[in-house]
Amino acid sequence: MHAIEKILAAKAGKSSVHAGEIVNCRVDWAGINDLYYQTVKSFYEMGGERVVDPEHVVLFFDHYAPCATEKQADNHKRFRAFAREQGIRHLMDINEGVCHQVMADHGFSAPGEVIVITDSHTTTHGAFGAFGTGVGATDLAVILATGRLWFKVPEVIRINLTGKIPAGVYAKDIVLSIIGKLKADYAVYKAVEFAGPALQQLSISERMALCNMTTEMGAKTSYIQPDAITLQFLKERGRQDFTVYETDADYVYAADLTFDVSEVEPQLAAPFSVDNVQALSAYAGMHVDQAYLGSCTGGRTEDFAVAAKILAGQHIPAGTRMVMVPASKAVLAECLAKGYIQTLLAAGATLTASGCAACLGIHQGLLAADEVCLSSTNRNFPGRMGSVKGRIYLGSPASVAAAARNGVVTDPRQYLDEKGEQA
Ligand SMILES: CC(C)[C@H](C(=O)O)[C@@H](O)C(=O)O
Ligand code: SF4
Fold this sequence. Notes:
This protein is of the alpha/beta class. It has helices at 3-12, 38-45, 70-86, 99-105, 137-146, 171-182, 204-213, 228-236, 295-298, 301-311, 329-337, 340-346, 397-406; strands spanning 22-26, 29-33, 57-60, 90-92, 114-117, 131-134, 148-152, 156-162, 191-195, 221-224, 255-260, 267-269, 277-279, 290-294, 321-325, 350-351, 372-375, 391-394. Helix 2 (38-45) crosses helix 5 (137-146) and helix 10 packs parallel to helix 13. The chain is globular. Bound molecules: 3-isopropylmalic acid (IPM) and iron/sulfur cluster. Pfam families: Aconitase (PF00330). Keywords: 4Fe-4S, Amino-acid biosynthesis, Branched-chain amino acid biosynthesis, Iron, Iron-sulfur, Leucine biosynthesis, Lyase, Metal-binding.
């Protein structure tokens, strides 16, 4: 069996499972974000009275944080009342940040767990060796009422990463180049595992970016075998009570691919699909109206660190604006402590509240028609960040910062030395 199958088997109380089988699993973490009040309504509509395991339910106020309309505020108010009524202690209010980052910050995401959130990018938790997947309101309501949910055991595609990651190239570039080759529907309902020696060069932050983006290949879930890097991250957050499952040596993958990361250069996904990927150099010199640094893909401390290296002592030129959205309160605190935010503010960037913000066009950084945004987020569909005529290019946080520095698409490698430090 694959480690993912072992997780699902354990949660279903079975000794073995196989791809295609439907299993009914105990869910370790059920998360609801603030776009999904329908979950609460569905819970009552299906006869729910008490949430079976409120200790393992997390409510996230991230998409509307802080609220831009009265309707959003009313939603939050009803969620808070639900939390009080049901004894849900983990209410991550508007200052906490994007659900996936908050899960990581709190040490909630851990190996061997089943994590289900009303958000498609729940694949992110594969970075911890968890089975993470996104669902809609009614499925989540079933978990509230029963503590369990059914899944179809996915086939697994393994992507082996080999070679040395060049300076100025990041997980985002690697995964964009993979999606550009394999395309947006390559992994529909399959699991995508990242493996291979290059993983040793990738921190948890970078692994989260990789796993996050598998959603844009249609993946049901993602997986990275926990290692010393994972265990160290969890130790720092006080997590020790988890089970690490290992894939059997004779497990047969649905596909087994190898990518040499040493050949990857900075990439951009051009409008209007995530698999419309080219080398960044193809767009060098194109004017950028907005550089957007944030989200559950590219809004972590390391992302701010590299942006600060590129923009230290610089001034963002007139005609370009930079919006920065730390993925969570913990990320913001860390970036403040390290001086990254101060450096970026001094360069002329705007700081907005942690959360989803303009990543999906809610507030804090929307685009006008024909404006170009270079964004560290994960989607560039029409209307994703405001006007349906806004043009979003997805790239690494370093590429976002380099664009802010010059007001045009710029290769970030020229500002970094061979160690990835300020050149
Ligand atoms: C919650 C939902 C509207 C959505 C998702 O499921 O991913 C959002 O977070 C996104 O990134 O598009
Ligand atoms: S930051 Fe963006 S991609 Fe992530 S959960 Fe929020 S809206 Fe979705």
